[in-house]
Write a structure and sequence with these properties.
single chain, Lysozyme-like, 6-stranded mixed beta sheet
């Protein structure tokens, strides 16, 4: 089922049309700046879609013993502002005025600590796989609203691979940057 919805806007630093999920995996933005959008991909276990595992990871509730691929995530504290699922549904874990823990060791235009000034959007997918059309449709709407709300130019929408080259490859070779940038 396709859950692409009209993105209604941002209210109190939350996307009005997203399902809100609380997490402690966040921190205050040191300067309040929001000037970059970073695209990622995630699937848990790797290559498996659907289910609660991503949600549980981002909220610190992941049962690492249910699958051998999850054991390495024990003790990891990560989150994103948004997760766009394969069907286009959107979950929000962290309000945009707070830092989500998505970028790790990162640098953009000579500035480190990208979590401090970026919005992290996870796409349910893999570095090598293709993304669903519902995800692209939803991502375009979300980025348009975020760009307008926080005055972020569309050329400041980057991949995790752009801010952590050599360490990260997401959103990966299956992400159609040309289509996405043209659609914006």
């Amino acid at each position: 089922m396709n859950h692409v919805m009209s993105v209604e806007g941002v209210y109190n630093h939350r996307l009005a049309s997203a399902v809100q999920v609380d997490t402690l995996h966040q921190s205050p933005r040191p300067t309040g700046e929001i000037s970059l959008i970073v695209l990622h991909c995630i699937s848990l276990p790797a290559g498996h879609f659907g289910g609660q595992y991503i949600r549980d990871l981002f909220t610190g509730e992941l049962d690492h013993d249910v699958h051998r691929d999850l054991v390495d995530l024990k003790g990891v504290k990560v989150s994103a502002h948004l997760l766009i699922c394969r069907d286009g549904s959107v979950l929000q874990f962290v309000p945009f005025d707070q830092s989500a823990w998505h970028a790790g060791a990162s640098e953009y235009e000579g500035r480190s600590q990208c979590n401090d000034f970026s919005i992290g959007i996870e796409l349910e997918g893999t570095d090598q796989g293709l993304y669903a059309s519902a995800q692209y449709e939803q991502l375009v709407q979300v980025v348009q609203v975020l760009s307008a709300t926080y005055d972020i130019p569309v050329d400041r929408v980057v991949g995790h691979s752009d801010i952590a080259p050599g360490r990260k490859t997401d959103p990966g070779t299956g992400f159609d940057w040309r289509w996405f940038k043209d659609a914006l």
